[in-house]
Amino acid sequence: MGRSPCCEKAHTNKGAWTKEEDDRLVAYIRAHGEGCWRSLPKAAGLLRCGKSCRLRWINYLRPDLKRGNFTEAEDELIIKLHSLLGNKWSVIAGRLPGRTDNEIKNYWNTHIRRKLVSRGIDPTTHMPINEPAPVEEATSTISSSGVANSKEESNMVKNGISTTNIEKNPVQERCPDLNLELRISPPYQQESLNTTLCFGCNLGIKNTEDCNRSDGELISGSGSNLVVISLG
DNA sequence: AATGCCTCCAACCGCGTGAAG
DNA sequence: CCTTCACGCGGTTGGAGGCAT
């Protein structure tokens, strides 16, 4: 049995948003706040699916968005974070206030990828293009996409392997100025971590009074494993 | 001016995940 | 446990606009 559609497609608009639709969405969210995207279109009088509304708000209409060109500093931060996290655009976006995952993803694909190639760096592996790709060491290092496979992570945890024990971190070798501390914690350590982390910090987005994690640390990963990354 | 190609980015699609029942 | 539902994420697409010929 397949997943039921998120909305009744026959009665929803698709494609570019009109000014009127934008206004309706903004007005509704100002009045009622974000959330409950499934029921929002009907309540706001929009012939759109909730998913589309959410995307429009997050990527375009949110008042805190910083529109305009990326700075050189942002470029470099994206490159460093991508070398560490891979295509975890939402996590990367969490470190760039006012930028969205979609925006960063597009910017990566259109600008940074090319920039790295022109520097002679493979944008996927972040290694020099003319050097042979390193032999896959999935169980001991971050994979070529920059993200450890979750099943492999699970196996590592099951087998009692912690990345804390990894002696050489290839990312840190590539980015010596980036203070990175990688730690994939087995489930039994989660409790102590969770007691100090609010939801926002878990997403690497913000600190709240609910937690005492100092700024400059973000949490990546989900499920039973957490990756704690310190950014210097 | 017309045409074709290229670039960029907003939006869509499908899937994974966690919560709820 | 299993199923269903809603949300969020990452990959991909399509069209508008810019540029070259």
TrEMBL record:
<comment type="function">
    <text>Transcription factor.</text>
</comment>
<dbReference type="Pfam" id="PF00249">
    <property type="entry name" value="Myb_DNA-binding"/>
</dbReference>
<feature type="domain" description="HTH myb-type">
    <location>
        <begin position="9"/>
        <end position="61"/>
    </location>
</feature>
<protein>
    <recommendedName>
        <fullName>Myb-related protein 308-like</fullName>
    </recommendedName>
</protein>
<dbReference type="GO" id="GO:0000976">
    <property type="term" value="F:transcription cis-regulatory region binding"/>
</dbReference>
<feature type="region of interest" description="Disordered">
    <location>
        <begin position="123"/>
        <end position="155"/>
    </location>
</feature>
<keyword id="KW-0805">Transcription regulation</keyword>
<feature type="domain" description="HTH myb-type">
    <location>
        <begin position="62"/>
        <end position="116"/>
    </location>
</feature>
<feature type="domain" description="Myb-like">
    <location>
        <begin position="62"/>
        <end position="112"/>
    </location>
</feature>
<dbReference type="InterPro" id="IPR015495">
    <property type="entry name" value="Myb_TF_plants"/>
</dbReference>
<keyword id="KW-0539">Nucleus</keyword>
<dbReference type="InterPro" id="IPR001005">
    <property type="entry name" value="SANT/Myb"/>
</dbReference>
<feature type="domain" description="Myb-like">
    <location>
        <begin position="9"/>
        <end position="61"/>
    </location>
</feature>
<keyword id="KW-0677">Repeat</keyword>
<dbReference type="InterPro" id="IPR009057">
    <property type="entry name" value="Homeodomain-like_sf"/>
</dbReference>
<feature type="compositionally biased region" description="Polar residues">
    <location>
        <begin position="138"/>
        <end position="148"/>
    </location>
</feature>
<dbReference type="GO" id="GO:0005634">
    <property type="term" value="C:nucleus"/>
</dbReference>
<keyword id="KW-0804">Transcription</keyword>
<keyword id="KW-0238">DNA-binding</keyword>
<dbReference type="InterPro" id="IPR017930">
    <property type="entry name" value="Myb_dom"/>
</dbReference>
